[in-house]
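Help!! Second protein's tokens look totally different from the first
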Amino acid sequence: MATSTATRPHFKAEAALHTLHALTGDEYDEMVRDGALGEEDKVELLEGYVVFKMAINPPHDNAVAVLIEVLVRMNLPGWMVRSQGTAKLTESRPEPDVALARGDRRTFANRHPEPADFGLVVEVSEPSLARDEQDKTRIYARDLIPVYWVVNLVDRRVEVFTDPTGPDPAAGSPGGDEPHYRARQDYPAGTAVPVVLDGTTVGTVAVDELLP
């Protein structure tokens, strides 16, 4: 699922409206601390660029709410269910729709979760599908997020990406030096997606529950 440098990323054109130069994660964090960016600014940092978050519609909201409910009901000791909270990655500060992060209710009281904290990251996609299937696979693979789901409301399936390459795949591998996930499995309507944490299946989510 890597993208070529000729076509990536999908967000740079809109990002030009917001930044004169690419920002580091620390610079973005400072803008948030100083109040230059607030909760009313519907943006996130992706690979150094401040970009608009996509508008949210009822099917998106419903899928997020249902997934949170199902994951909470699984009662996963040692894992926090998070929704649209900041992830502190190497080059980005995405705000995934749903995530499972290792910790308890106090772990992230004073910091954002970092790559090693995440077991699962989920983006619910309709207008954001191209960004989530291509740009964010690269972003999450770069920081070795082990499991990444795209809840694809357009094609009515859940796409599960696993086995990230990290920042420096071996020469000659698919995608060259582009971070990507080596494995992808799609779960259509009528099937169930396994929830895998640290290599162990801890439950399943019915795809039909997430679809409008």
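Here's the second one for comparison:
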Amino acid sequence: MNLGMQINKDLIGNLIILLADRCRPLYHTKLVKLLFFIDQEATITKGTPITWLDYKAWRLGPVSPELYYSKNKGYNKFSRFVSFESSGNNNAYIVKPVKPFDDSEFSELDLEIIDGVIDRYGKLGTGVLVQLTHEKGTLWDKAVHDSDIRFGRDNQTSDKSLNFLELIDNDDYKKSVYYSTLENLELKSTL
């Protein structure tokens, strides 16, 4: 299990509730992309992602496997927060909150970043979001090309993690914030 799921499961669950409330209807694939964009923007803005999910380079872009498989019956790691209901349309799932959003784990800056991502990407379709993650120079593009990953009909996923540090490579202060926060989260995960 990745660090984000160990430490921030409640935060992630509440963030999914917020996205499901604000981006109706919220399809599962769009959820995965919005969470990625939130973590990307948070890293650029403050030096750390909000969720600390581990995103892998998959054919359709960055994907957190734990989140991806949560749509499957019996695997919903966020069942206290949301349900994933089949839309009856090509294996598409709609995210439905099962309780109200709780903002207690988010800073004001986190909420500003989240609101900005929702304003920028929330009305876009899933296909457009996938295209945006595939643009030249994105974390997904770099991971795929640096690791020479070749997707095809029989190869839709990879184990290659996206490196958020690449977003702040030229900012020593933000890198120190990233490493300090990571160290604190790793320590917290052992307690």
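Reply: Different proteins will give different token patterns, so don't panic. Residues 3-190 form one domain.
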